[in-house]
Every structure is written in structure tokens, then in C-alpha cells.
Automatic annotation (TrEMBL):
<keyword id="KW-0812">Transmembrane</keyword>
<feature type="transmembrane region" description="Helical">
    <location>
        <begin position="84"/>
        <end position="103"/>
    </location>
</feature>
<keyword id="KW-0472">Membrane</keyword>
<feature type="transmembrane region" description="Helical">
    <location>
        <begin position="115"/>
        <end position="135"/>
    </location>
</feature>
<keyword id="KW-1133">Transmembrane helix</keyword>
<feature type="transmembrane region" description="Helical">
    <location>
        <begin position="147"/>
        <end position="164"/>
    </location>
</feature>
<dbReference type="InterPro" id="IPR006976">
    <property type="entry name" value="VanZ-like"/>
</dbReference>
<dbReference type="Pfam" id="PF04892">
    <property type="entry name" value="VanZ"/>
</dbReference>
<feature type="domain" description="VanZ-like">
    <location>
        <begin position="90"/>
        <end position="164"/>
    </location>
</feature>
<protein>
    <submittedName>
        <fullName>VanZ family protein</fullName>
    </submittedName>
</protein>
Length: 170
């Protein structure tokens, strides 16, 4: 099977792989739209003061559920899961961002050497700007461990994509 190679963007609209690519702005949206949407979601989430600090998930669940037996059964599970939600969120969000950046790089510059490293670095740099942004959001704070988790999430996603690509070749 063919390795993961994005079709280069052609100047000729008839060579377009999708209807989006027949339009010059559509080619950019098709290439970079997934990464921009991912960045917007991360920015929005990091702008939410209620998602920072201790016991944020418990407060969120209490807001959704009325006092009663269901809430009392759910709270112990929430207390057990809550310490891992931030890590999981960072791993998934920045893993998806790295893959979306790789998609954009491969669509825009198919023969670009180091696309994998560039996608990882782009995700890590966006994580750095996100931590800086959180410094200005009330109830949120910057944490170097979040940036570390962002880099690990991006690296794991890219490593999984690379292994999947190699497996498809055989």
C-alpha cells in the first residue's frame, strides 16, 4: 500500500482531489482548517475559568445533576477520575493538534523534510502560547507539567500515526 502522502496542491483546479481544492481559498481551508479548528477549541477551553483549579469536575457535575441519590453515586467516581482528566485532556487535545498540523504541512508542502518534527514543534509551541494565555484567565494558572503533557500527547499521536503508516506499507 502507499505510504501516507498527501496529494500536492495543484495550480490547476481540475487536478483537485476534492471540491474544496478547486477554489484557492478552499485549498487553504482544506489543508489548515482542521488545525485551526483544533486551536480554536483549545483556546476556548483554556478561556473557561471553571475548568481550572481543584475539584472543577466535581463542581461541574454538581451543576449538571440535582442533589439526590444519583449525585451521591456519581461523586465517588468523579473524585477517582478527576486527577487524570487534565492529563487526558492535554494528551488528546495536543495529539489531535499535532495530527492536524501534520495534515496541513503534508497538504501544503508534500515533499517537506521533517514534517513530523515540525508538526510536533508546532503543537508544542501552541501549548506554550496556551499556557501564557491561561496566565491572564481568572481561576486558571500556568503549569509547566501541562506543557510537558502537551508535548507527550503530540509525540504519542505522531508516533502512533508513524507506526500505522509503516504497518500499512507492509
Amino acid at each position: 500500500m502507499e505510504p501516507f502522502k498527501a496529494k500536492p496542491l495543484s495550480a490547476n483546479p481540475r487536478d483537485a482531489a476534492s471540491p474544496w481544492e478547486a477554489w484557492p481559498l478552499g485549498r487553504l481551508i482544506h489543508s489548515w482548517g482542521p488545525a485551526l479548528i483544533n486551536m480554536a477549541v483549545i483556546f476556548w477551553l483554556s478561556s473557561q475559568p471553571q475548568l481550572g483549579g481543584p475539584h472543577w469536575l466535581e463542581e461541574l457535575v454538581r451543576g449538571w445533576l440535582q442533589e439526590g441519590p444519583l449525585l451521591e453515586r456519581v461523586l465517588p467516581v468523579v473524585a477517582w477520575v478527576e486527577p487524570y482528566t487534565s492529563w487526558a485532556g492535554h494528551l488528546v487535545a495536543y495529539g489531535c493538534l499535532a495530527l492536524a498540523l501534520l495534515w496541513g504541512i503534508r497538504r501544503q508542502w508534500p515533499a517537506r523534510p521533517g514534517a513530523w518534527r515540525l508538526a510536533w514543534l508546532g503543537a508544542l509551541l501552541y501549548g506554550l502560547t496556551d499556557e501564557w494565555h491561561q496566565h491572564f484567565v481568572p481561576g486558571r494558572h500556568t503549569d509547566w507539567r501541562d506543557l510537558l503533557t502537551d508535548g507527550i500527547g503530540a509525540g504519542l499521536a505522531l508516533a502512533a500515526a508513524y507506526l500505522w503508516q509503516r504497518h500499512r506499507r507492509t
